[in-house]
Amino acid sequence: MNSIAVHADSVRASLGNVEILHGISLSIQAGRWTSIVGPNGAGKSTLLKVLAGLLPHTGTVTLLGQPMASLPGRLRAQRMAWLGQNESSADDLTVFDVAMLGRLPHQPWLAAPSTADHVAVEQALKATQAWDWRARSLGQLSGGERQRVLLARALAVQAQVLLMDEPLANLDPPHQADWLDIVRALVDKGTTVVSVLHEVTMALQADAVVVMAGGQVQHHGPSHHPDTHSAVEQVFDERISIHSVDDQWVVLPRLRMHGSAVATVSFL
Amino acid sequence: MNTHFRTALDAMLLGAISLLGAMVALPAHALQMTDDRGVVVTFAQPPQRIVSLLPSLTETVCELGQCQRLVGVDRYSNFPASVRALPQMGGGLDPSIEAIVALKPDVVLMATSARASERLQALGIKVVALEPKTHADVRRVLEKVGQLLGVDDAQRVWRVIDAGVMAAAQSVPAAARGKRVYFEVNSAPYAAGEASFIGETLSRLGARNIVPASLGPFPQLNPEYVVRANPDLIMVGDSNYIGLEQRPGWSGMRALRERRLCVFTNEESDMLVRPGPRMAEGARIMARCLADKAAARAAGGAP
Amino acid sequence: MNHPRVNFLGLGLLILAVVLTLLGASVGSTGFDNLLRAADDPVALQIVWDIRLPRTLGAWLAGALLGLAGAVAQGLFRNPLADPFLLGSASGASLGVALSLVLFGVSPFATQWLTRLGLTGGAFAGAVLGVLLTLLLAKGVQHTLRLLLAGVIVGVVLGAAKELIMLARPDFLQSMQAFMLGSTGYVGWNACLIMLLAWLVCMAAAWALSPVLDGLALGEATAASLGLPLARLRAALVAVLALATGTAVAQTGLIAFVGLAAPHLVRSVVKTSHGRLIVLSSLMGGALLMAADILARWVLAPLELPVGILTAVLGGSYLLWLMHRRVTAGGML
Lengths: 268, 303, 333
What we know:
B: alpha/beta; Rossmann fold; five-stranded mixed beta sheet; 11 strands; C: mainly alpha
């Protein structure tokens, strides 16, 4: 249970001429949920894309023991699923068809969907509560509903490793809670989940936290550990404070001003 | 008669003759003419430096023996060979105003359909717009240009041309008269109808056009129309000949089967198409075509 | 799902094609009586069989090729304004035709080759070379934006080259204009056969590649994460685009708007995945061009209107009406 799902070794990546990741070495434990947090521009999404094998980089990335460079694309797609920030223009596809696209890595080219495919899609859509409107087209849905369908697409891959970039975008609190349940259920079954979240409170629900700033990993440790908490507070310039409420960790903003100044601020 | 009276009479006679002479001499210097736009253009004396922007007008000027007065032409004027050495001002419809002005012409001859005339006039250059389109136009333009150049040879030149056309008409054998001709201008296909200049020449030669005047001078036809009309003779320019025989349904046409087809070179096409002084030669070319190909005997292998 | 509606539309378009074929065989410079006289009059029979029928079927095939190419282009570039002429095929074909016209008669060698290839060969070669030039300029198919930009540049440059040729040889101006506005005038049975073969190949390939287009609709990164070999498949799609467009343009000239409008017309009736969209776009394009061609021959018989004008009028009017309906219904455009 303590094997490494994804391992990065001295990874550097650039976007255009600017180097974003300055030599990152990182091991993501299998069967756990790891969250990547950090301020804007820290390189979190870039790191996730590199781990997913979607960006050119120097250094090596290993997936489940095998170097990604030598892994055929199809096998990689079967073992690792990726949910990116919404860039889709698939308005004409139905919810069901979108979810079924997640089964592409498992389907022989141009084959009709098998029973296993149908079962996987049904499970995924039911998990995100999108099953009832599987015949609606994506363009007819609200932002949050869309996000749930795209999540179902990623779930339908039934991969051992699931990478998610800002999966809570547009989701209202009940569905954010649903997402937490889904992730917990996946981890219990042995799936490795890595998420980039800017909602730090949510991120602290994970098993492990990777704290990033300026293209480098500042800290990587269990989410309940005080060292991790101080690393998180530090990387956000001490503008947040982490408190324990009902056995859960909660992040509160730390206001600079107190007393009469607070009244002025609240008036604004 | 006494000498005083005789001197007075001589003086009056001299005066009258000078007056008459002056009246005759003046118009030769102050010329007024109306061009095809209806604009009246005045010249103190006949223009010596001429720019021509229409091939048929270039040829007209040279035909009247005044080629040496040309200082510039458009890029499409190519006859006689001497004009090719002249500076080219661009196309007839899009001439280089600057180049024209730099030549300091006394007059610019151009088609009525060109926009540059306003610009040139605004710059103080005299423009005479003439656009011959019919046989009658050729005569009229000849006379106008003759008037402009101060040359009274125009009538004689016209008589020669007209005689040439009539001779060409007479050279067409009786067997070839009344034959139905399809003249293709380009491969769109655009045909030359009865109402066009080419059509007029054909009519004078005694041939019939499969495209009646009601369709306009240059209609774009449905290729099926030509097949249906089944012309006795096809005339086409060399550059537009490509693919003519491969057109669907055309290989069965009598004119193609019996090789009653005249393909004109570019030089020949120029003469056929331009309403200008070489129309007699154009008529001769067409007449030769009619005589060779349209006669009743089938061409068994003859070119 | 939407499958019943999809099938309904497909069937409807096929029936429309058959009806239009019959109409097309009856219409021309001389009217319906040709059809009736066909039995006795050999010229009438020749007109109907050798000229009208291949023209009408050719119009369907060319429209089908353009509709297919339009759907592929819009899926490949993820842009509803994409049309099949985007990658330099139109300007390449025009330049090819211009060069063929000019070089014919220049030398016996040129004349011999050009008689064999004809203007259609020149147009096809030009279209394919235009696309290759675009690919060269964009250094491959990886970056969609770079591909689009390269296509625009190639279009402008080759177009300018063609204009220079036209300036030097104005006697070809009207032939070129006829090509630019499109015509089915010279489509015979050979041309129909060529277009049919191209259509079958392109349809099979596009159908096989359609999952890529669906994947791409989710975003490039997502499509890559699903294990799709994007570079190879994109290159294959560009090849389909080049073949379909080149073949259609070579036979019928540049007919605007069919490739752009056909997918939109299909989408206004039914929403579906790319595979079925491509098939329906093809059928829709065929019907559209066929209808336009019949009108082009009928309205001013025996004169002929350029068919490109009518496709724009027909397709454009329908889309305008559609937009108007959507706006007045209060929906988003």
